[in-house]
Amino acid sequence: MLVPGSSFRKDANFMTLKLKTIIYGFIFSLFPVTSVLSQQMLPLEIELPQPMFIGTPQDFEVPNLEKPLGKPRPPFMAPEGTTNIALHKYVESTDNQPIIGETELITDGDKEAVDGSFVEFRPGKQHIVIDLEEKHTIYAICLWHYHQKAMVYKDVIVQVSDDPDFVVGTTTLFNNDHNNSYGLGVGQDLHYVETHEGKLIDARGVEGRYVRLCSNGNSFDAVNHYIEVEVYGKPIP
Amino acid sequence: MTLMLTVCCRNQCEVPGIFKMFNRMIFFKMNVKRSGTIFLGCLGILVLLNLQVYGQSVQESDPLTQLDQILHKISIYDYNASRGWLDDFRNLMKQIYNSPGTKAEAEVMMIEFLQSEATIPGKQVVCQELGPIATNKSVPVLSSMLDDSNTAEMALFALNMIPDNSVDKILRDHLDKADMPLIIGLINSIGSRQNTKAIPQLQKLAHNEDLQIAVSAIHALGLIHDDKTTRILDKLFKNCAPPLKWNVADSYLKTADHIYASGKKKDAFEIYHTVYMTNPPLSILIAALQGVLKDPQNPPEEEFNKIFQEGDDNLIDAILPVIRDYPGALEFFNLEGSIETLDPKQQINLLIAFSERGETKIRRMVIGFLEKGNPEEMIAALLALFHISEPGDHHIFAIKAALATGQIKEFARSCLYQLKGKEVDQQILQSITATSVENWERLELIRSVGERNIEEGVDIILESARSPDRRIRVESIKTLGKIGKPKIIDQVIELLITAHTRQERNEAISTITLIAGKNPNIETRSDEILAIVKKISDNETQISLIEVLGNIGSDGALPVLRDFLNHPDNDIQYSTIKSLSRWPNDDPAMDLKEIFENSEDIKKHTLALQGYVQLLSISESLTEDQKAMAFQKAFYQALNLDEKKIILSAMGNIGSLKALEMSVGLISDKDLQLEAEASIINMSDKISNRFLTEKRKWLERAIEGSDNENFKNNVKEIIKWLE
């Protein structure tokens, strides 16, 4: 039976419920932020290599290309004590016999785009996995594929997981695979031009031991390169 | 038939035409009287006979007959037409050139051709081939062709190759009346033929208002190089202003070279000095300096000093090769004095120049640069040291490779790998075992064993693979992959079993795979591993060996791996699934299918599904439609979106209407819309256009079902392209 005003009460109850949900949702969504805010935030000091080209990059025939910033990247804020936890860590790759260099170069701290500083993997889909040796809180990942000339790498996917096979508990931080060629889903991130600044990816404090980086050739040819990958984070106490 | 073919050949008739007719005749008879099998057999014989007899007719017929036939084809040739006959023509002309008997007749035929109504492009081709066999018989016709702007250039080309004096006169006569661009060709021809009677005309043309004509005339005077041209060039050099002056200088120096070669060295030196003193552009200056350096009366030290003191980098860089080739240069740069006054970059460039001629006296300075130079100088010093390397220098390169980074490291390694000689190999092996060598150097030396492929070093490397130093062990295991033969596989498996770290294990896995791959018998490649894999009690080692079995992929390993799928340890099961997923064919596909159909372990499920999709993708036994059906079934077994995305990605790579239909149906699923759309775009060019109507129908449905404007536009483009 319809009681006058019942509709209003229902609506009011519903509104209360909805309001509660929003407030709790807001508080819970702030939780990781507040935990981060409780720490002192400092600009991440990323040592940059020598730039190898100047000016506006050539016109690439690459869809969904990010516009160059045209100025230095703004500082990235991370909790005090954040360091490059990937330095000298072991790197595995799908290509056991790189065409040039070796996987050790990816975490050796040398980011210069010169001979002897980069590894070149075979054409097509290839990925590397950095083993951080223990679970860490990760705030940022900065990667340099190859910045001797303006190039765009295809199907760049960056993931963090506790599982070395990246099957369970995997977080995807970046994905610009627009045609799902990797089978990890269509990524909405933009392609970008490699520069000496590298690509800085906000890891939003994700926790994990393994970092996987995928690529599938570049705008110039089908091979894959890495100069350096830095993972900024802290061990979990 | 044989008689008929013989007649054809003797009469030089159109042999293929006759064959065609004959073929038709046989074909008709066969259709009426014989069965298909007999017909095919006869047809085969006929084809063979055709080929054989036609081949013989081409090879054995008279070259002049062949020439006649080819000229007939060339007569109608136009620029945009096929030149399929060109190779035959060129080969024939080579044959004629080597046969004095046919040369004269061929020339006559070609002259007639040039006078015929043949096309201009055809005449051009003939002129190119006429030149080498042409005599004064060709001169009148070619001369007349000079008057026609359409044929002048080709005629000049042929004329230029006729050594007869009548040609010189014709060229001189035409020089006075020719316009651009023919005049340039005439001047060049006159110069290359050293036509001295044309000197007055060339002298006049050297003052022509048209710079191109003047430069060509000056160049031609330089080529003629007699007393008269020397005087003309001398006068021109003194009176001309740049830039023409430097063209004159170039010709003047060429003349000087000839004068020097003829023995009048003093006259030549005078020219070299004259040009050198006028501060000409760099290329002329270097050419003049090379002449000046030949003069024993004028030792070049003063010039070197002057150049280095002035410090013009471009000039210094340019004269380095001159200094390198100057016998007394090393004494001049006594390496204790004047060289150190130079800029470091120039010093090192000079040292490289000396090292290229093997001057070992520069060693001390080179080593100095290795110790204190900047990166660029260090690389240059490494190069110089490489040129003058002595026994034992492998230490220097190995140490540099170990301690440096980036380009220097890479360059030092490259020098170490390329040091020549078997004795270097022996020294490297000795150094690896020497206790005096530090581990960081040993590391580079071990690496060099692999890069230099020092196979006799395998025992030493096997020993170093047991070193207490982790880095040495890793590098040694890597090196064994390069130099190891299948006979050492047991020892490398032992290294895997005793590996201390994951990195070592991974390197051992790669090395065993590489070494097993060197066994020519595919079926026995896994034997050593199969013999022990089940007996191993350590999980990590067993997992590594399972991985190797997957990498090798020989059939004998499949039953063993299937057994491991039922192993109680999950990690071993995961590893086995991954190994089967890398299999070189789809043999284990059903094993993986069974796992994901029955397993509730999400990791096992996903790994098996990934592997199954991978193996179906490479399957050569399934049709595209069968693959699509299998993917569809797997799709409905998928436990989550991630697994469905894996399947949609693989579907995009097969050309099947069924796959297209399935992807179109998934557009409405908001969680998979983007992947379904990507799959449609990816597969659209893989589906055969034999199914154009259906393909179009599904693409149109995809447009209707999607709210993604970008996707819709892309599909519209594809449909437009299909139409």
Quick overview:
By secondary structure, chain A is α+β, with helices and mostly antiparallel strands.
Key descriptive features of the protein:
heterodimer; A: 237 residues; alpha+beta; seven-stranded antiparallel beta sheet; 1 helix; 11 strands; disordered N terminus; B: 43 helices; 72% helix
Indicate the topology.
The complex is a heterodimer of chains A (about 240) and B (about 725).
Chain A: H1 6-37, E1 41-43, E2 77-79, E3 83-84, E4 91-93, E5 119-121, E6 125-144, E7 157-161, E8 170-175, E9 199-216, E10 224-226, E11 228-235
Antiparallel strand pairs in A: 1-2, 3-11, 4-6, 5-10, 6-9, 6-11, 7-8, 7-9
Chain B: H1 2-10, H2 15-33, H3 36-60, H4 63-74, H5 86-97, H6 100-115, H7 120-130, H8 139-145, H9 152-159, H10 165-177, H11 182-192, H12 199-205, H13 211-224, H14 227-239, H15 244-261, H16 265-276, H17 282-292, H18 301-310, H19 313-325, H20 329-332, H21 344-356, H22 363-372, H23 375-387, H24 394-403, H25 406-418, H26 422-433, H27 439-451, H28 458-464, H29 470-483, H30 489-497, H31 502-517, H32 527-533, H33 539-552, H34 557-564, H35 570-581, H36 589-598, H37 602-618, H38 624-637, H39 641-651, H40 657-666, H41 673-684, H42 692-705, H43 709-722
Outline the structure in words.
Chain A is an alpha+beta fold. Chain A has one helix at 6-37; strands at 41-43, 77-79, 83-84, 91-93, 119-121, 125-144, 157-161, 170-175, 199-216, 224-226, 228-235. In chain A, strands 3, 4, 6, 7, 8, 9 and 11 form a 7-stranded antiparallel β-sheet that branches. A two-stranded antiparallel sheet of chain A has the order 1-2. By secondary structure, chain B is mainly alpha-helical. The longest helix of chain B has 25 residues, at 36-60. Mean pLDDT of chain B is 86; it is low at 1-60. Chain A binds chain B through residues 90, 92, 96-97, 108, 110, 112, 114-117, 131, 163, 165, 167-168, 178-186, and chain B through 405-411, 413, 502-503, 506, 510, 513-514, 574, 578, 602-603, 606-607, 610, 613, 641-642, 645-646, 648-650, 652, 674-675, 677-679, 681-682.
